[in-house]
Amino acid sequence: MKTNGLKNTYYGQKITSFLLLKKIEIIEFLADDGIVSEVEGSSPLEYPNGQPNITYIAKFKSKKERDDLFNSMGNDPEWEKVWSKHPNPNAYVHSYGKFFKSIKKNN
Fold it and tell me: DSSP readout, the chain?
């Protein structure tokens, strides 16, 4: 499924700005470049709505901080402005959260 990488990049910048406004440290933010996804492996899943178009890695102080932010977004006027820029606001939205800890040793 081919996507519009340029629209995703623009929208990704809006999400990044919103998270920075909320004082969330962005480690990395990636937007689909429009190249068709390659899905391989022993049990590959091709999702009916396509693969993720925007991926970000953010550093939260805790899961609670992340949960509080996400739970407040529906009532946040700044988030409503961001969502209004979505290239297809009626599109399927899939959110996937995964929490990690650093294994890098501090010197």
Answer: ----HHHHHHHHHHHHHHHHHTTPEEEEEEE--SPPP---SSS----TT-S-SEEEEEE-S-HHHHHHHHHHGGG-HHHHHHHHT-SSTTS------------PPP-
Structural domain boundaries enclosing 19: 5-35+51-79
Residue position matching structure tokens 């407040």:
72
| Mean pLDDT score of the chain | 78
Q: Please state the domain count of the chain.
A: 1
Supply the pTM of this predicted model. 0.64
